[in-house]
Specification:
18 strands; 16 helices; Rossmann fold; alpha/beta; TIM Barrel
Length: 494
């Protein structure tokens, strides 16, 4: 069992902290703990209880092999450690606790980083999600889309009609949505379609121009007031005044225009309208921007949500038609919570939640050159370890350490120097993992061998099999087992 000690200039009054790890993580852990001890102030030791991989650690093994000195007042084991820590606390008379699974997360464990997400439950923005050309879709397809949109965060399902057509299906569609407890709006200028929708239970009409006030005012539901043309701000004021006079509830939408077609001027119209009408409810059809700009929509939705939050625009309308907008509703749901939290507290929208960091990762932690060299020198088995770094993909086992930007060349060199033959199944596994490492390197994502890549709000993705590392002969040190593997009966005498 190896032991490493260190200390700070102002040691922790509670005594020495013992960190327990596997042999392969010892060098990297020591770097992190050394820096951490100087910031927090404690003396420390690291013990490796004769085990290669921290993920294989169990309390039974620690009870047999751990040798804490009399100076130890606290023991931190890896988050992977299996078993009841209370038994170790009672046996050694020292408090044992699980730390993070990745030792690089120890600063957060000691309170030097946020260590978690902010409480983002509050928001004051409504999401209206349109089903485009709904009157041309089968009812079953409409209901499926509505459920997907609602699950992603939509508050109201908008039945999008086809301009120039007058469908007799609107009543059927709205009624079916209402029967399933969806809140519904209707997007049409056609009086027949709008009346069908309102009679079936629609609560909002998109949209009402000056010329529509006469017949829409008698329907008894809220409308969205818009100008005759986006530039005609006077007509928007006129329809707002007329709806107010008639007692019709409404929200005003000055109409945002796509990039390249007056985007900045249209944003200014929202600012100007809010200054003229500080108490009027407002809406922004953000899909006009996200659908008509060929760019991943998450960042655009965040900025538009921030504009809405600062101008007190209480609702947004979006669609998920273009491929780059396929998660627009979920993005807006995350964005409305993030901007609400940031604007109310006057803080940057940073280190609060990383759901909208999808293409890249908010934080990428990598092994240092020294840690990689130490790890490569310590390997005693033929199992390959893979790391992703800016200088290339690293592949190592007891036979060598190979690295480079060309993963095919790295793999070929490793096979050429392999003392143990690599079968087809293991070659497939290595190729798959190296491809993931290469993808993470190019995108700036965190790569952990056999661990999932993170994709923000669309979730973490990993292969369907849990233990898919295809271990080679000699992967495990004597007495070690994979996580979840039952201990052989004969081991009980160790």
């Amino acid at each position: 069992m190896s032991v490493m000690t260190g200390g700070s200039s102002e040691p922790d009054r509670s005594g020495v902290i013992l960190f327990v790890t596997g042999r392969l993580a010892e060098a990297g852990l020591s770097e992190v703990v050394r820096s951490l001890s100087q910031k927090v102030g404690f003396d420390w030791e690291i013990q490796v209880p004769g085990i290669q991989v921290a993920a294989l650690m169990h309390t039974r093994l620690l009870r047999q092999r751990l040798r804490p000195s009399g100076r130890i007042r606290r023991v931190i084991v890896p988050g992977w450690c299996q078993g009841n820590l209370n038994e170790l606390t009672q046996h050694f008379g020292i408090p044992f606790e699980r730390g993070p699974k990745d030792y690089r997360d120890l600063p957060g464990f000691f309170g030097l980083e946020s260590g978690g997400r902010a409480d983002l439950n509050d928001h004051d923005m409504q999401i209206i999600a349109e089903i485009n050309h709904a009157t041309r879709l089968r009812l079953e397809e409409i209901l499926i889309q509505a459920q997907v949109l609602a699950d992603a965060g939509a508050d109201i399902i908008d039945v999008g009609c086809v301009p120039g057509e007058s469908s007799g299906r609107v009543s059927e569609i709205v009624q079916a949505l209402k029967e399933r407890s969806f809140r519904v709006s209707i997007d049409s200028f056609d009086p027949s379609e709008v009346r069908q929708a309102v009679q079936a239970g629609a609560e909002l009409i998109l949209s009402c121009r000056v010329s529509d006030v006469g017949w829409m005012a008698d329907l008894g539901v809220e409308v969205v007031a818009i100008p005759e043309t986006p530039e005609d701000t006077a007509s928007l004021d006129q329809v707002a005044d007329e709806l107010t006079r008639r007692g019709v509830p409404f929200r005003a939408d000055p109409i945002i225009e796509p990039v390249g077609m007056g985007f900045l001027r249209s944003l200014q119209r929202y600012v100007d309208f809010r200054q003229r009408h500080p108490q009027v409810a407002m809406m922004m059809g953000v899909g006009n921007v996200t659908e008509l700009a060929e760019v991943d929509s998450a960042g655009v939705n965040l900025l538009l949500a921030a504009v809405c939050q600062e101008l007190r625009i209480g609702s947004v309308l979006t669609t998920q038609v273009a491929s780059w907008c396929r998660t627009a509703v979920a993005e807006l749901d995350a964005a409305r919570r993030l901007v609400c939290h940031a604007v109310r507290r006057h803080i940057p929208a940073k280190h609060l939640d990383d759901s909208l960091v999808m293409l890249r990762d908010a934080r990428v932690r990598m092994e240092s050159d020294a840690a990689l060299r130490a790890l490569a020198a310590a390997l005693k088995d033929p199992a390959y370890r893979i790391f992703s770094r800016p200088d290339g993909v690293h592949l190592m086992n007891r036979d060598g350490h190979w690295a480079g930007e060309d993963v095919f060349a790295v793999f070929a060199e490793a096979l050429q120097n392999a003392a143990t033959p690599v079968d087809a199944a293991h070659a497939f596994y290595l190729g798959y993992e190296m491809a993931r490492a290469e993808l993470a390197r190019h995108l700036g994502k965190q790569y952990v061998q056999d661990g999932p890549l993170r994709w923000g709000l669309i979730g973490d993705w990993e292969p369907s099999t849990g233990a898919h590392a295809r271990p080679m002969p000699g992967d495990q040190a004597p007495g070690e087992r994979k996580p979840g593997e039952q201990k052989p009966e004969k081991d009980s005498r160790e």
